[in-house]
């Protein structure tokens, strides 16, 4: 029983960052119809920006976080303007290849600049965990969960409560009609990609201090983000948020009660099941298909 | 006139360059410089370069300089095999050193047999490497069975009753769990859970939650430094306070202290080198020279527990080439059997291991148990 509670606490914390990763990716796919293979690299970039800000520049931890997220936002905007805008209107395969190339370039770039040796980001939280009965949680991880939930809430509010969000949703449903109604679709695309990238960078900046930072860290994160997006339904933000927690739960319980050797396989088993029985994702709505 | 002059110079320079290359004896180095084992592989290569420079400063081998051809196997077995093939066929290196991890080395071994080129194995610890009948393999690191054997007398002194394992999901980790498990059972110690983690995994809290709930007194962990740092931090976060002993010799205790902080306090590690207490090493003078040179080059002290393997590996290869009398694979493979000198962690002499007629060479280095106490490395009092 104690073990189960500990697993559930771990799930909540892991799920928060998974959701962050998934939302960023699903936004970009849903609105722009771009399969973003730079997502993992942007996660890595976020972690390295955090490292630079905290360890190299000596910035305050809590100040460094928005800096890293802002950096991810600018990076994303630059990628959209330089690499995606020239290929607008081309088929999805073309942009996919461009994105794969950009992802490799970004990963090699971090390797070139920072070297292959993993870096640790110091955190201001105490080493001793918070102990509630039989369950222990580190303060850093609690902060990560809180920050992730806040960011998810912020993204949700931005999409559902602001004019920009309304324009994004309009472009998602029908870009041509949205353009006729006076929405600047070009700018919406840049904003969407920048926002998705900022969320990926946020996940990296939050998890960097929890784990260690190295150039290939984005690979597994990207795979998981794709898994979450498929789980939640392509382009479905709420689905991605819930999908993140489902994936975390499957991994925790799978490793805890089935076999730890197959931890990372658990998520993919679920995806195969979802693709077999509910190919549009667990939370897909009828009007979003096609 | 000027044009012809430049052309002639270029040709002469090119000839001089190839001349120099033909004159040097090339040694292939196959190590993980990127990927999860990047830190360790880079240290090994840095150690290897110190050995090469030292040997060249003394006039080289057989009157020729030695030249290291370093290639990155990306911590990936497929790449490790490809790198070996490239070093042998394209760079024509008559002898290799590599490939750090057990799975990486095992992937290279068929290539050695195909091309009949010997390789000195400097780090890998899976038993399979020297028992599968590959006569081109010469290992200076201890296989996990040897590590377990050296550790055996300490089991009772530590009062171990029941042990769980947390190991990497590869030949290195699973091999260690098997060999240490066998030794512990022989000693009457119970073996409980054997938990597995992927080499790239960053979050082990599910495995740790399970280990926390078990009734064992000790967890034996087999992984390399980067993952160990994460593990100790996550253990502290979960309030897991059992005795932890790591195996494999790739822990870089100083890096653990620097990156895991107080989370590493009280952890014990089986290592194969004692740079903290040079006077207790088999060749104190050599140890001090090596550490001084390492520091002079501005490398992190944490790396020496890894880099000494590269240093000893290249020294062993140089001895073999010297004895072979010519830089040819068959002669070097034969000469490895007569190598005999004191390395930084004990004598380097190869004993036969594996099926008769196709034996691999295995040297028997020292193994030490160290403890991290208040951010320092100490020898535990048993």
UniProtKB/TrEMBL annotation, chain A:
Coiled coil spans: none
Annotated keywords: Amino-acid transport, Cell membrane, Membrane, Transmembrane, Transmembrane helix, Transport
Transmembrane segments: 12-34, 41-59, 65-84, 96-118, 138-159, 188-214, 226-249, 261-277
GO cellular component term of the entry, any: plasma membrane
Record's keyword annotation contains Cell membrane: yes
Name recorded for this polypeptide: High-affinity branched-chain amino acid transport system permease protein LivH
Stated family: Belongs to the binding-protein-dependent transport system permease family. LivHM subfamily.
Species for this entry: Methylobacterium hispanicum
